[in-house]
Amino acid sequence: MSTLAGIAWSSRKGWWPARIKWSFSLALTIILFFPWAVSYAAQEDVQVPVKIIEVKGNKRIDTNTILFKLETKEGESFSIFKIRRDVKTLYETGFFDDVKVDVEPFEGGVKVTYIVKERPVVTRIRIVGNKHIKSSEIRKELKQFPFNIYNEKILNENIIKIKQLYQSKGYYNVQVTPEVKKVAEDRVQLIYRIKEGKKAAVAKIEFVGNKHFSDRELKKQMVTKEKTLFNLVMVFVNSLFGKPATYYYIKDLLEVDLMKIRQFYKDHGFLRVVVGDPIVKVDKKRGKIYIKIPIEEGPRYKVKSVDIKMGKDDPFKKEDLMKILLLKPGEYYNAKKMRKDVTNLTDLYGSKGYVNADVRPIMDTDDENHTVSVVYRIEKGKKYYVGRIEVSGNVKTRDKVIRREIPLAEGDVMNTMYLKFAKKRLERLGFFSTVNIETKPAEDLGDNYMNVFVNVEEQPTGSLMLGGGYSSVESFGVMGQISEKNLFGTGRSLSLTGEFTAKRVNYTLTFVEPYLFDKDISFTFSSYHDVYEYDLYDEKSFGFSFVFGKRIWNWYTRANIGYELKYAKITDVSWDAPSFIRDVEDEGAMVSSIILGISQDTRNSSVLPTEGFERSISVKLAGLGGDYAYYKVYANWERYISVNKLIDGSVFHPRLRFGFVNPLPWGDGRPVFERFYVGGQNTVRGFDPDEAGPEEDGDAIGGTKELIVNLEYLFPIVGSLKGLVFFDTGAAFDNGQPISLGPMRQSAGVGLRFITPFGPLKLDLAYKLDKKKDEDAYKVHFSIGTIF
């Protein structure tokens, strides 16, 4: 007798009903309480075939999808263990609330019916009660979406996600209550009801165990701040410039703070520093957070020795490499300097084609004497050459405009430094929002070639700008400009500018061709009309100039040669003006001149640089026709030096300017409009624009020479707001008056620098150090905008 027959027979005798209904729990009961059925089947080696499988109760889920998931198959032997695994598998799909199994005799085998109850579909998800976080931001965290099948597990995961989002923004008392609202037999809505609570502000941050650095110094390294009036302002200003800073407790940001504190210590020689897990106490009633950070500083290590180990056939001499290292014996160990050494050495090898040079610092620490010996092991690797240079992403800009900024050609020795310069040059063009340069092996060209891939994302280059500004000299003014920096995608620029202030009216048209005839020669044409009102007279002029420029020696040096034709006229001369000014009143003069110059600029920014230098010298030779024959020389030198040892991010900025104008042997004196006037915000602060120079009958007349020295120390306050202290000295000197320190005027003071959407803001308070009788002791200089 077969097992099934035995069951049927037993059923007929009253043991079971003729039809057996099995659920998952019933199947388990049979296995636990009627093991004889299984063992009997095993003993007799009897196999009961599954004749047919049916699925009932499914409306949305396709029957074939369910059958595919089952281990039980038609034609195979029936197994109660397979049934049990099938039920578990169907539950795990997340599609069903309930799964039952019917098994009944059928044509010499069994018929298995899976009866399922489908879970409802989520038709809508609502978020209620959120005020400080947008619903769209919350929805990004959710795993369940409308028209998905409802899943309680995912619902609970979403609650955790929402809480984590709120806690990341400082809401540690947030409550999230879910509601599953039935809208039909097979459809539900999910509602997340949120009680945000109050933000938990950081009331106090303290450190335990710090001896060499004060709490204040360590707090400066942190993004997380205490909620004070000053920090409220600082966090707001930082937010304007996208810089992270908060006075709320955000766990992820605090983790970053701990890393920064740890790195700060290592940058000052504390190799064994341990920054422990912070102790965070939450006062839910008052909405305040108290953070205590334990620190074990450990001993401070000095550098005992620094060495370089390199392989054979190295392209550099060891003594030359040693000169560029920042980490020096005898100094306290500085992890930042060591990282910079690795970067510099890697770049140096990359400039010789060794793109994959491996520079690895090996540290030998003497814990007894608290010293560390550093050896830079260099494996130069393979030398690479440039394969193909491919440009992508440019729609408007022509390929050649991009390629000419890359100082490499196919077949050249690969130079990673040149690629970095190329990236900077492309970014400085202002044509692209992003510039990415990558190198990849050129397998089709050989194992020592690399292709260069340049990808750019273009941005608008045309602009129509209307602006305003104010200065203590020229009062209020307005400016308008229409310009196109990338004319027809050629890299050429064209601009028309108009300036209108209380003392000046100016129109200027400028055209620039950066690569004339596709050569590294720039061409600039400018035409202008200018009216300027001085205290003693008005100057009206118009003219044009064109200048050719070429990069020489290196990427930051440029030589210029050009020509200028200018017509100028002095009008409305005051009755008390000097005679040499009154003599030329209403007499127009034509000046024809050649312009020569050379300039260098390595600044990392043209607005508020922190490193680099700018220096230039120009000579104007007038006398090729026209009414005057003279030469004018002007030189400028300035440098930006980071002095982080005093204040992190601070800069020392010295500047020297010198100029003179003299007649040529066949010339007729010097024109009034070429004289030097010293004083004011752009020369020597604390003085009027023409106060630091020669006078005649109490009136400033300008000079034929000038010397100006400015010393500034700039330091960060908050965000891009910078403070400065300065010392200025300078003067204009008249014809026959030698340049000497005696006549030079002096001032000192403090100021602020800030970048606004309207242009740079400058505010200076300058005191005269050599105040004369009847002179003001100080002056406030203020300007904002781009027109001054």
TrEMBL record:
Record carries keyword Transmembrane: yes
Entry annotated with the keyword Signal: yes
Pfam families: Omp85, POTRA
GO annotations of cellular component type: cell outer membrane
Compartments reported by the entry: Membrane
Superkingdom of this protein's organism: Bacteria
Entry's Gene Ontology BP terms: membrane assembly
Main location: membrane
Organism: Thermosulfidibacter takaii (strain DSM 17441 / JCM 13301 / NBRC 103674 / ABI70S6)
Keywords of the record: Cell outer membrane, Membrane, Repeat, Signal, Transmembrane, Transmembrane beta strand
Name of the molecule in the record: Outer membrane protein assembly factor BamA
Occurrences of domain POTRA (ranges): 48-119, 120-197, 200-298, 301-381, 384-459
Organism placement in taxonomy: Bacteria, Pseudomonadati, Thermosulfidibacterota, Thermosulfidibacteria, Thermosulfidibacterales
InterPro entries, A to Z: Bac_surfAg_D15 (IPR000184), BamA/TamA_POTRA (IPR010827), D15-like (IPR039910), OM_assembly_BamA (IPR023707), POTRA (IPR034746)
